[in-house]
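We were asked to recover a plausible sequence for a given structure. The inputs and outputs are reproduced exactly as logged, with field labels preserved.

PROBLEM: sequence recovery
POSITIONS: 403
GIVEN STRUCTURE:
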């Protein structure tokens, strides 16, 4: 997206989607990601996004908003972060600005400081946009009506009063470094090495420490990567920074495997756990993933011949969220290799409806977002709608191939 002057907009990265750059409304959905797609599609919305922190997050909002003078309103909605309170901090910024240390006056969240924003930019932000505090509101119809009322009273493009166009914005500057480097062999850590496994039944990570001569030394059980790594550092069992980084990565993988029912093998990528064969009439154990009904996976040709009411099994990539508990996206071709790790994309649009009775496998409702890759089992309906009975989240273990 570019402005008339040729400069790209938005000028800073973030968790947002761009709508109509000439629209007067910017939406800050705080931590409620599901609101972004439906709100950014509304007439008059220039941008909609999330914010978690009252420092870097608000900095990005200020810079992106002030670099587009068409934006005249900032609508705050969704759930605020209990720790950082960026919603409350944005309201405080609008009302009182910052002090001489660039701290937002009367902000209640954690560390509401804006060190990389010029005071002039803060002043322009406060003059340019009217901040509407609807923190906590998640009703899309209410928010849609609110956006329309704001768009209807658009005061027009903000004029700074200066002869020149917008002044250059202070950008964050970083020293570029390249990835890679020499890691000391882990066996050379004088404190020894570690073997990490998971125990799905107990929902625990099991970490065993061996001395350099392979003598068993210590054992730790836990469920969180951070607390386990801190425990190792507390006991002085790691002496190399590269070793600590490696352990942090592996423990995080093990934690993810426990949370989403994946297979964990140390030093290997996460993979789906194999589904054991279950005799008819036998109940599955709590640790075994739910069994997918024996329905052939659809090809694109078969999809076109499917009649309403048929139970289907297909792969699906989420591109938008058109309605509450409805996923919009495209049909994916089955993986020809049989590994279910890479799926060719098609242009065939589908919508998947899900609800409280839908079984979510290898993930939860928070994973049903734009960009998700799913295997869907459910009843095919008219207008390319599938009523999802089982949704398997494959986002972390597979990818979509562009054609």
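RECOVERED SEQUENCE:
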């Amino acid at each position: 997206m570019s402005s008339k002057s040729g400069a790209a907009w938005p000028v800073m990265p973030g968790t947002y989607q761009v709508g109509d750059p000439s629209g007067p409304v910017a939406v800050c959905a705080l931590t409620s990601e599901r609101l972004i797609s439906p709100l950014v599609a509304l007439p008059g919305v220039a941008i909609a996004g999330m914010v978690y922190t009252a420092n870097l997050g608000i900095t990005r909002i200020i810079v992106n908003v002030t670099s587009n003078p068409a934006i005249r309103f900032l609508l705050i909605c969704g759930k605020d972060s209990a720790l950082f309170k960026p919603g409350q901090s944005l309201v405080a910024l609008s009302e009182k600005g910052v002090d001489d240390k660039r701290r937002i006056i009367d902000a209640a969240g954690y560390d509401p400081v804006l060190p990389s924003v010029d005071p002039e930019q803060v002043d322009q932000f406060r003059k340019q946009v009217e901040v509407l505090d609807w923190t906590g509101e998640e009703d899309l119809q209410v928010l849609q009506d609110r956006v329309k009322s704001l768009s209807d009273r658009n005061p027009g493009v903000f004029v700074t009063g200066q002869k020149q166009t917008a002044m250059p914005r202070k950008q964050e500057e970083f020293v570029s470094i390249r990835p890679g480097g020499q890691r000391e062999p882990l066996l050379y850590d004088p404190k020894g090495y570690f073997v990490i496994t998971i125990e799905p039944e107990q929902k625990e990570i099991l970490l065993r420490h061996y001395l350099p001569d392979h003598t068993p030394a210590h054992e730790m059980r836990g469920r969180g990567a951070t607390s386990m790594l801190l425990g190792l550092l507390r006991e002085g069992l790691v002496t190399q920074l590269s070793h600590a980084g490696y352990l942090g990565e592996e423990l995080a993988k093990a934690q993810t495997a426990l949370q989403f029912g994946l297979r964990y093998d140390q030093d290997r990528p996460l993979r789906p756990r194999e589904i054991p064969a279950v005799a008819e009439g036998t109940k599955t154990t709590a640790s075994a993933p739910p069994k997918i009904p024996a329905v052939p996976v659809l090809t694109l040709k078969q999809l076109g011949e499917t009649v309403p009411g048929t139970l289907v099994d297909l792969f699906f990539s989420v591109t938008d969220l058109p309605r509450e508990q409805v996923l919009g996206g495209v049909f994916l071709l089955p993986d020809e290799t049989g590994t279910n790790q890479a799926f060719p994309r098609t242009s065939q649009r589908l919508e998947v409806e899900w609800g409280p009775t839908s079984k979510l496998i290898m993930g939860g409702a928070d994973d049903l977002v734009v960009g998700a890759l799913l295997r869907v089992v459910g009843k095919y309906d008219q207008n390319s709608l599938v009523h999802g009975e089982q949704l398997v989240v494959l986002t972390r273990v597979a990818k979509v191939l562009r054609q």
